[in-house]
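User: tokens in, sequence out, please.
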């Protein structure tokens, strides 16, 4: 794997897509100092910064408040794409499929279901004990007595795995059961995410770039884990964070400094310098 300093043609980059947890955000969930200014500078240079995350749209816009008209959002692992306030794409899961996923999960006691709508996240009242943790990712939570037959627009079904066994449970249970009908992936050790088939961050980035008239050769992407794979493989300038597991190395071209070393900011500064 090449070092980030070996990347060339940075002046051609027109889109920068960036995962959040363990990528842009340090382990303490903080952003690099001065990141809003970098996003504005990218915008002024004709480069679109996109927050690409499993987090819902309303959480991401809250994290980048005041920058909505200067950047893009690839939320819910690509199930919603918004660019400078314009909805480019959204993908809603059939209510019967949501019901099937809920019954499958609860019937096997496999984790804590969180059903992600466009404007809120639905969680059972009996799981309120995880509220403080959930609100790091879901800025708006609606607690309900039951998840049966929700009357809402749902674009992602997510399982929280308190025992941090998301990767094996995803591979051994959910991918075999639903992988032919849905996009099934892990967002780190505690999250299993399911969206409509073909929905992922890579497809979201491709849709954003098509909207902007940008080729894959002129796109950059930063990530660290499974739900970043397609995005890293799609973008020509793909950066894997130094804190990522070794198994992720085949999916990216360049190694960036770790999230705690503010690797995204380091590379973005190089991109900005190339546009001056």
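Assistant: Sequence out:
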């Amino acid at each position: 794997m090449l070092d980030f300093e070996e990347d060339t043609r940075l002046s051609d980059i027109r889109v920068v897509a960036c995962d959040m947890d363990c990528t842009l955000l340090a382990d303490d969930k903080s952003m690099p100092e001065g990141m809003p200014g970098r996003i504005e500078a990218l915008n002024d240079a004709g480069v679109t910064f996109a927050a690409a995350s499993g987090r819902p749209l309303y959480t991401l816009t809250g994290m980048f408040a005041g920058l909505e008209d200067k950047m893009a959002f690839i939320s819910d692992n690509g199930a919603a794409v918004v660019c400078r306030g314009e909805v480019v794409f959204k993908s809603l899961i059939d209510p019967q499929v949501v019901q099937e996923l809920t019954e499958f999960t609860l019937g096997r006691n496999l984790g804590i279901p969180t059903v992600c709508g466009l404007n809120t996240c639905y969680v059972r009242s009996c799981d309120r004990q995880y509220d403080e943790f959930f609100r790091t990712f879901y800025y708006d939570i609606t607690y309900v007595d039951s998840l049966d037959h929700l009357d809402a627009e749902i674009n992602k079904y997510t399982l929280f795995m308190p025992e941090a066994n998301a990767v094996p449970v995803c591979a051994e249970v959910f991918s075999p059961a639903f992988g032919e009908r849905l996009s099934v992936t892990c967002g780190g050790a505690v999250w299993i995410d399911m969206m409509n088939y073909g929905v992922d961050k890579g497809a979201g980035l491709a849709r954003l770039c098509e909207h902007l008239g940008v080729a894959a050769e002129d796109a950059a992407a930063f990530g660290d884990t499974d739900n970043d794979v397609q995005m890293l493989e799609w973008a020509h300038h793909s950066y894997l964070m130094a804190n990522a597991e070794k198994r992720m190395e085949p999916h990216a071209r360049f190694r960036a400094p770790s999230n705690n070393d503010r690797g995204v900011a380091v590379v973005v500064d190089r991109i900005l310098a190339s546009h001056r």
